[in-house]
Amino acid sequence: MWALLLLFGLLSYTTFLKKEGFPPINLPIGAVQGTYFVNDAQKVDSEVTQPLAKAVESVDSVKSYDASSGSNFYSLLVTFEDDVSSEDGANQVRAAIKDQVNLPQGVDNNVASIDPAKFGNKYNLLLAVYDKEDSSYTALAEKANKVAPQLADLSEVELSEAVPVLESVVDPSTGEKIQRQTSINKIAITEDGTTKFYPAVSVGVSKSADIDDLQLSSAVTEKLDEIDLGEASTRITADFATTIDKQIGSLQSSLIGGLIAVVIVALLLISWRAALVIALFIPTVLAATFGGLYMLGITLNTITLFAVILTLGLFVDDATIIVEAIDSHRKDGKNHKEIIKRAIKRVGIASLAGTLTTLLVFAPMLFISGILGSFIKLLPITVILALSLSFLISIILVPFLTRPLVLSGKKKKSILDRLSILVPVEEYLSSQLAKLPLINKNNKKKGRVVTTAMVSLSILAVIGAGLFATRLPLDIFPQSKDSDILQASVEFAPGTDIVSAEAITDKIDKNIQSTLGDELTYVTYVTANERTANIEIGLTPFGERDPTSVELVEELKNTPLEIDGSVIKYGQQDAGPPAEDFPFQMRVYANSPEVLKKGASTIEAFIAKQKLELTGKQVKVQETKTDEKGMISRTEAGQFTTISAQFDNSDVTSPAVTELERLVAEEFDEDKLKSLSLSSSALDFDVSQESENADSFASIGMGLVIALAAMYLLLVLLFNSFSQPLLIFTAIPFSLFGVFFGLTVTSNSLSFFVMLGLLGLIGIVVNNTILLTEYANQERELGADRWTAISNAVKDRFRPLITTTVTTVFALLPLALSDPFWQSLAYTLIFGMISSTLLIVLSFPYYYLFVECIREWKNNKFPSLT
Asked: CB 846: neighbour CB atoms within 10 A?
């Protein structure tokens, strides 16, 4: 069975599981957009946008929409009901428009579903066809049209087509079709230290239903090598396989490094036999987890890989507890079955309780709200699956492996046994720490001194945690400390034509090339037209360069950020949601354009002069802006203007947004709004990505509270006590000093990933106090007094406590050091475990003695309540 499980898991990981970037989710959003070349936003709004909006409103599945009209274009972002897919919703909107709207001649209208897991909502891969630095788009399009059908012949490809740079449009003044450049497409490649920019035409490729991104990328790459384009070349410019490869590589490196660290620690602290059992246990749990994901129909993606990495430190705990318990009972001299029974009886309930409480911690994440909740839902599913399998395998496979590997070993020490050089140190420390609680029994005066010192140590740690916590910035999705990809976004000035826009991008290209120098590997234009441009900039891998991406972005910001009225913004590509330059966003609604202009101007002036006091820091509003001049925006609630604000301190963005919302709502109450001829519902704050992230972040906190309540009730049932679960929970505040101290010294902020780390941390550290409390309770049942019970618990459970902590820390270190993305989560677990474990072995025994003293007094005073 074990061999079959390993084989099935290996096949699942290498063959069966589909591999993709983001997990497939239902994002119920569609878009209606197009062009109407009349150079008049009012005309576009009245003749096109408003009729389209009425048709959209008539669709039952539409929840809301945001519409905007420019001088030559329009767009409607439509949100459907949660149970409606983006594609179904788009089809319903398309049908309503066809039945109800008679668009003017010259309107080029398009209705599309939104798929964030695809490039341009349509493609799984993009490649560029390029030739010379002065090649025409017409010539390149011919070559792209030669490549596309050859790729379409691949069984892995469902669709392959050239993405047009030139399109036929109707000239409204003549009614004739004309050829018009509608986008900009360029690619830059660095070879031998020289960077050259080429015009390009993209080919978009969509994969077949049962193909993953890695298979698609491999098939397309092989086919491109066979296609002869003469002097022209092709290069893949957008491919999820690159990200997936990096994630899998990071996972494999972390698992291998963690496995080696775990084996070494187990070898030094327990025995070489125990180390071998643990080394076999970890890949078995991984195999079972990957097999379970396949059975559940879940893909191997960014989120599930993230979850597996997170649980690595958690399920090491299960094996360590069981194998150490069996190893420690070898000296009992009983037969193998009795030794295993005795060991499982000793730690089985505690291990089960620890697993169940950890599952309860992650379960509320299934109910996180918003789009973030949709993405993150696979994380708790994967964690719950992995931890459940880990517990089952630990009580089935570990005893099975210990019989030949641990219990059948010679009692006489071999050369390999001498490798466990830290065992004497562990035995000495455990015996010395076990003596301290007994002082309270044998010498009350000295006992009070020891108790006061140990309890004071824990109190000071909790106070210190509070001090460090108040100094930490809150940033729900902080910028990674390094990245291999930068981004440039360009907003062209109103009235810029496509030729002028291309000339501006030429200047931007030169600035990028001269600033980044040898660190530049490629530049590709993801999307670009006369309104905006999104440019991806490749860097040499962060392990091979000295300046970080953050430093390189700052250098780019020293280049001209405004060229011919166009605004350029540089940033880096992160795995989380992109940071917003103006995180505070609100809308002002009014029926009259004049009233709207006056009201928005008054509110913007108020916002611009605000100085916020946040946790001892003063934050100023650095810049404000409203919608682009001439742009008309509306929803089903009416016409609106968006007011945005930027702060001078990005470390406190989330609390600054919340505080500014409060100040605006307080200043512009119903009477003030009335004086501006605005209705009481004219203000809407819930519009920015920061607001949605804050709601999702808050739902994690609420879920944590619910999880702790559920954990308490579970522990009450398992321990038949109302006080001991509270005693077990002391492990949580014990860990906080390490968490906040660690985040401070490693320059990490409070974030969504830190919250995930805290969830995992709670499961581990509570498991440690459960282990001590359960062992002490068993000693009490055998007749020991409270001092002796907790003393024996510290002595006999010290090794698994220390081993679990050290193995978890060393298993997570490769994760913390190998990839900046995982750093804050890994350090949360590492420093939190160190802090909690130290305080558990030093201070927890005295809290136990106090609670047991109260329980004994209660039982003696009120025996009926026993």
From this structure: 22
If DSSP codes are grouped into helix, strand and coil, which group holds residue 623? strand
Q: Which helix (H) or strand (E) holds 67?
A: strand 62-69
Q: Hey, what amino acid is at 730?
A: T
Mean pLDDT of 198-210: 93
856 closest CA partner among 780, 791, 790, 795: 780
φ, ψ at 39 (rounded to 5°): 55, 40
Q: Give the pLDDT confidence of 58-75 residue by residue, as tens digits.
A: 999 999 999 999 988 999
Cα(516)–Cα(263) distance, rounded to whole angstroms? Answer: 43
DSSP assignment of 121-172: TTBSEEEEEE--TT--HHHHHHHHHHHHHHHHTSTTEEEEEE--SEEEEE-T
Residue 8, both tokens: 């099935």
Cα separation values, 64 from 67, 397, 495, 761, 816, Å: 10, 54, 30, 40, 42
Per DSSP, helices labelled H in 369-422 are 370-376, 378-402
End-to-end distance of the chain based on CA atoms, in angstroms? 47
How do residues 74-110 score in pLDDT, each as one tens digit?
A: 999 999 987 888 889 999 999 999 999 999 998 989 9
Residue 230 CA from chain centroid, whole number: 44
Q: Over 70: is that where the pLDDT of 150 sits? A: yes
pLDDT at 658 over 80: yes
Q: What is the mean pLDDT of residues 129-151?
A: 94
**H-helix or E-strand spanning residue 91:** helix 86-100
Contact 786, 849 (CB under 8 A): yes
Mean pLDDT of the chain: 87
CB 808 within 8 A of CB 317: yes
pLDDT confidence of residue 33: 93
Q: What pTM, to 2 d.p., does this model score?
A: 0.80
Measured CA to CA, the distance from residue 810 to residue 264 in angstroms comes to 10
Only one residue has tokens 């702060």, namely 647
Using alpha carbons, select from 851, 745, 746 the residue that is nearest to residue 789.
Answer: 851
The per-residue pLDDT for range 590-612, each reduced to its tens digit, is 988 899 999 999 999 999 999 99
Instruction: Report, as an integer, the average pLDDT of 151-158.
Output: 95
Report which of 43, 41, 93 is spatially closest to residue 64, judged by C-alpha positions: 93
The DSSP line for 303-352 is HHHHHHHHHHHHHHHHHHHHHHHHHHTGGG---HHHHHHHHHHHHHHHHH
* Cβ contact 368:700 at 8 Å: yes
State how far the alpha carbon of 31 is from the alpha carbons of 41, 79, 93, 94, 110, in Å: 19, 9, 9, 10, 8
| 199, β-bridge pairs | 186
Residue 791: CA count within 13 A, CB half-sphere: 16
Return the H-helix or E-strand segment holding 639: strand 638-647
Rounded Cα distance, 13 and 294, in Å = 9
For 565-601, give one letter per residue: b (16+ CB within 10 A) or e. Answer: ebebebbbbbbbbebbebbbbbbbbbeeeebbebbbe
pLDDT at residue 169, rounded to an integer: 66
